[in-house]
Design a protein that fits this description.
This protein has nine helices and 16 strands. Strand 13, helix 8 and strand 14 form a beta-alpha-beta unit. The protein is an alpha+beta fold. 23% of the residues lie in helices and 31% in strands. It is globular.
Length: 319
């Protein structure tokens, strides 16, 4: 007997505005439950303290999560100067308190010093794993484990505001994948000689996705209530919030093929084209429809890298 799959087959990307106080996985599970989706995954965790853009990939979109994990991110961050904590944010315990004596000129100079490529050691309170276990679990037990230094790129870090009464600094950061804003703030505090930690972190963009496309869990619940009141299926409103799968692939080169060639590609066979294909992953569009990603094989032909199973039924299997 075939195993029954719980949930419905729904494909697309939801730009969830994650609320403060819950983990990214908790937010994912809530979104998956509301959509009654068979399959879902998020792309780049936010700490419970953090809010903002958390792309949720449903169904076939989960095949392309790596492209969103690898893209750059933008954040608004507020830092409390004068206090350093165990976690580099307000969820941790204060380990040192120092007087704040900084000028705006000094802040501008020290903030600007972080722009560009550098090496960064991940925080012990990150979700990165060591021997299959998240670092933060070791940290909570007071265990320090080796961490690999990673290359990061701070494309921009702007000095937005500084309240001299509360010693709260606000910045906007545009950074490469894997950059820990908490670590930047902690390092900035040490460079200023007073310590600092994150008290607010809001992600406004993932790659090319703009902030105005985000939707909150409260907004989703309101749409559910509206559908119920109007005696409509929940999907009537919910599915309209989903972005097409290929919006995650805006940085990839595009190759357009015919519907007939799309049939060959969608059934796992390489397609010979009269062009020289670029290196790396390629976004493949057949007769105006996105059907997956491909790459150049050793013969220079287009082969499947990640195909959409949902597209196979639209094509006749080639002989």
């Amino acid at each position: 007997m075939a195993k029954r799959t719980k949930g419905r087959a729904v494909d697309g990307i939801l730009l969830l505005n994650k609320p403060e106080g819950i983990s990214s996985n908790k937010a994912l599970q809530q979104a998956k439950s509301v959509y009654f989706a068979q399959k879902a995954g998020h792309t780049g965790a936010l700490d419970p303290l953090a809010t903002g853009m958390l792309p949720i990939c449903f169904g076939e979109a989960t095949k392309f999560t790596q492209f969103l994990l690898d893209t750059d991110k933008t954040y608004i961050v507020r830092a409390q100067l004068g206090e350093r904590t165990t976690t580099s944010d307000s969820d941790g315990e204060i380990v040192s308190t120092k007087e704040v004596n900084v000028t705006r000129e000094q802040l501008t100079k020290e903030i600007a010093a972080f722009v560009g490529e550098s090496d960064q050691y991940p925080s012990m309170y990150s979700a990165l794993k060591y021997q299959g276990r998240p670092l933060y679990k070791y940290a909570r037990e007071g265990i320090e484990v080796p961490r690999k230094c990673r290359k990061i790129n701070v494309f921009s870090l702007s000095f937005d505001e500084f309240d001299e009464q509360s010693n709260v600094l606000q910045m906007t950061a545009h950074v490469s994948k894997g950059t820990y804003i908490r670590t930047i703030v902690d390092d900035l505090g040490e460079n200023l000689g007073c310590g600092a930690h994150v008290i607010m972190l809001h992600r406004t963009a993932v790659g090319q996705y703009p902030a105005d496309k985000m939707v909150s869990l409260d907004e989703i619940e309101a749409l559910l209530a509206k559908a119920k009141e109007e005696e409509l299926a929940p999907s009537t409103y919910l599915d309209s919030l989903l972005l097409p799968i290929d919006t995650a692939l805006t940085d990839l080169p595009v190759v357009e093929i015919t519907k007939e060639q799309g049939g060959i590609f969608s059934h796992g066979q390489a397609v010979e084209l009269p062009i020289t294909l670029p290196d790396g992953a390629i976004k493949v569009v057949a007769d105006g429809v996105f059907i997956g990603t491909g790459e150049r094989n050793s013969n220079g032909h287009l082969k499947v890298k990640r195909g959409l199973a949902s597209q196979q039924d639209d094509y006749v299997k080639p002989e």
